[in-house]
């Protein structure tokens, strides 16, 4: 009985808010229409079930529903005594076993009171943010003429228990959840089944190496291809297991390891304190909206009807990249901060010859520097880049594994890179993710196509220790000066079991431009996830994006590319193209482009394809006398090379050399070349 009654009331509620919405539309059409609309609106009826309470009819249904808190409960259902729940007791009620495991896992990474990195009070702040759960309040329903009114707020009935959005049950920032949009297609269950609660001995302290160790590390880094000699770069910062290694580095005014947080300027402190995904609401620079209004917060950007509201509402969380909690975790526990600061140049300097790169190298050894036996280790490399007015910079970040033949310990790499680009500066950024060994070739073959007595490739892959490694990186770029340029190239082709790179660029001033190139390779039993977000905030901003994904073996690869054009960003020109090549029947690929355009005077194009390599192109190459395998490899290489050539040329070196990036790429591609039946069939499929 009680149930039916509340259903009826719910219906009444919905009807009235629906009516409310339509009248708000009509009011924007003009006064006269508004009047005629409301005059033809029928009085509120509830025609199913018992009908509205008598008293409620007398008082007018709509009036009563406008303010859901307090008094009006009695107005709605006179005589029925509803219990107002204790919301806190419902906080974790929706949490499943796996969700709970996610929270325990994240809590272990965060560690105790004393587990703190080098960022001083900021680290304390981050811990506080993470450990303060969001307050449970009814989302405020604003009057329709309020400037922040949005129809996207659903106000709950007073007796409905409030529960937080996905991932916010225990922590103040959303942590991973299998059901959350940001984590869909990612292997959350096996991520949280692996503990990474250890950390390298001596974290936070500079690494002292003996001469022999210096030589041996340098040799290993050189043979991995990530090393740049002193005369090939402007500066080089080397981190091993999250600790700074000065003997391997070249420090100068442009780039140094940040020695203490307290001596930083206020500006640097404010940059370091920023979180991703809109959890730091203030924009890094005020943005002009129209002729006289200036916005300083993300929340207010696109006018009330399109406002995403608080970043911890479910609606907003669905559009996020899920990096905020990891950025805060990094702030809490990072053992070293690479700080790159390019001083002001002269106007006109920003074009011309390409500057030598600044190299930031993050290497991990096989046991991750664990002092004793450990279930798993976590590293939190941090990088801050500030490019002053009219400066030019090419920065290369590289992460690799050094095989030092000791016991493998599972590793979690949680990187956070922040880049701030000021007026007229031109920043070229390359990010190379190569950690976690090599995937096993041929895993897609069915068991009976493998020769008798031979080991099954899929079993070899399943036992590969690096499959337990996880690589996360959040790259947050703010182009905060007029005519600032940013060109970012992300190459993700390492062999870690789980890879997730999230790249977010905000274009905050007129004339700013971003080019984003991405290549992501997944093979073996890997799970890769690639996310990009281009946020056009100011007028006359431009962006170009090319994303290439190659998915083979029994792996899963997902790409989510979001472009958002705010109302303030008229005359935006934005192009996005994503191509995925699916090399095996056992692999799975998702490509999810999303365009959110609030402005009306924009040019945006996007395209997404998922296909096998083109049968026609294969045929062409074969008709020139190349055999099937060679043609196929050639096409695969050509597909990846479009993005590869955007990486700083100092890292490329020719295909003939042993260590060049292109050579390494070919080696990795060879491991995802389909084998068995599929290699000869190679049928063309396009979606
Ligand atoms: C920015 O610098 C890169 C190389 O350093 C150069 O290729 C590019 O043309 C520059 N962009 C502009 C707009 O000057």
From TrEMBL:
Residues 1-20 form the signal peptide. Pfam families: SUFBD_core. It comes from the Eukaryota. PANTHER family: PROTEIN ABCI7, CHLOROPLASTIC. Residues 59-69 have a biased composition (Acidic residues). Residues 373-639 form the SUF system FeS cluster assembly SufBD core domain. Keywords: Signal. This is Iron-sulfur cluster assembly protein SufD. Residues 48-72 are annotated as: Disordered. One of its GO terms (biological process) is iron-sulfur cluster assembly.
């Amino acid at each position: 009985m009680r149930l039916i009654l509340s259903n009826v009331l719910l219906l009444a509620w919905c009807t009235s808010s629906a009516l409310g919405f339509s009248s708000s539309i009509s009011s924007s059409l003009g006064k006269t229409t508004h009047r005629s609309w409301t005059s033809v609106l029928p009085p509120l009826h509830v025609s199913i079930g018992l009908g509205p309470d008598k008293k409620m009819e007398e008082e007018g249904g709509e009036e009563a529903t406008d303010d859901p808190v307090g008094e009006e409960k009695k107005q709605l259902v006179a005589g029925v005594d509803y219990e107002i729940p204790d919301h806190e007791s419902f906080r974790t009620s929706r949490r499943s076993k796996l969700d709970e495991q996610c929270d325990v896992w994240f809590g272990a990474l965060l560690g105790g009171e004393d587990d703190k990195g080098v960022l001083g009070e900021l680290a304390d702040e981050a811990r506080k943010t993470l450990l303060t759960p969001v307050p449970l309040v009814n989302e405020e329903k604003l009057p329709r003429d309020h400037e922040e009114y949005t129809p996207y707020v659903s106000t709950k009935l007073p007796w409905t228990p409030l529960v937080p959005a996905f991932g916010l049950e225990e922590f103040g920032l959303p942590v991973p959840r299998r059901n959350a949009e940001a984590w869909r297609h990612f292997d959350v269950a096996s991520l949280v089944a692996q503990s990474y609660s250890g950390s390298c001995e001596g974290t936070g302290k500079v690494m002292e190496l003996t001469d022999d160790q210096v030589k041996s590390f340098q040799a290993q880094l050189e043979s991995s291809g990530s090393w740049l000699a002193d005369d090939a770069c402007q500066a080089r910062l080397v981190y091993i297991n999250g600790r700074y290694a000065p003997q391997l580095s070249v420090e100068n005014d442009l780039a140094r390891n940040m020695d203490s947080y307290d001596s930083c300027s206020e500006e640097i402190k404010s940059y370091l304190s920023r979180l991703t995904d809109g959890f730091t609401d203030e924009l890094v620079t005020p943005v002009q909206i129209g002729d006289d209004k200036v916005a300083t917060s993300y929340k207010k950007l696109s006018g009330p009807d399109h406002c995403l509201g608080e970043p911890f509402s479910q609606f907003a969380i669905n559009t996020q990249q899920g990096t905020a909690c990891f950025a805060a975790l990094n702030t809490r526990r990072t053992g070293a901060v690479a700080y790159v600061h390019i001083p002001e140049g002269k106007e006109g300097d920003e074009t011309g010859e390409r500057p030598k790169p600044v190299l930031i190298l993050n290497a991990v050894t096989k046991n991750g520097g664990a002092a004793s036996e450990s279930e798993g280790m976590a590293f939190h490399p941090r990088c801050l880049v500030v490019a002053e007015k009219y400066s030019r910079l090419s920065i290369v970040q590289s992460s690799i594994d050094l095989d030092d033949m000791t016991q493998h310990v599972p590793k979690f790499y949680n990187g956070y890179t922040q880049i701030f680009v000021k007026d007229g500066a031109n920043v070229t950024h390359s990010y190379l993710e190569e950690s976690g060994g090599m995937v096993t070739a041929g895993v897609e073959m069915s068991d009976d196509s493998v020769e008798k007595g031979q080991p099954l490739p899929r079993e070899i892959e399943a036992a590969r220790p690096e499959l337990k490694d996880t690589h996360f990186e959040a790259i947050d770029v703010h182009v905060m000066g007029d005519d600032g340029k940013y060109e970012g190239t992300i190459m993700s082709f390492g062999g870690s079991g789980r890879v997730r790179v999230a790249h977010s660029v905000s274009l905050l001033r007129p004339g700013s431009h971003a080019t984003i190139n991405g290549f992501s390779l997944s093979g073996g039993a890997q799970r890769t996830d690639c996310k990009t977000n281009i946020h056009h905030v100011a007028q006359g901003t431009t962006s170009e994006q090319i994303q290439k994904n190659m998915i083979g073996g029994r792996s899963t690869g997902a790409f989510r590319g979001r472009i958002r054009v705010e109302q303030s960003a008229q005359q935006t020109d934005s192009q996005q193209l994503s191509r995925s090549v699916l090399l095996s029947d056992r692999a799975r690929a998702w490509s999810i482009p999303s365009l959110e355009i609030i402005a009306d005077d924009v040019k945006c194009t996007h395209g997404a394809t998922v296909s096998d390599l083109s049968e026609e192109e294969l045929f062409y190459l074969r008709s020139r006398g190349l055999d099937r395998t060679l043609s196929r490899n050639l096409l695969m290489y050509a597909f990846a090379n479009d993005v590869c050539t955007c990486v700083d040329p100092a890292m490329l070196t020719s295909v003939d050399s042993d260590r060049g990036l292109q050579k390494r790429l070919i080696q990795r591609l060879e491991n995802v070349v389909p084998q068995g039946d599929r290699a000869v069939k190679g049928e063309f499929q396009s979606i």
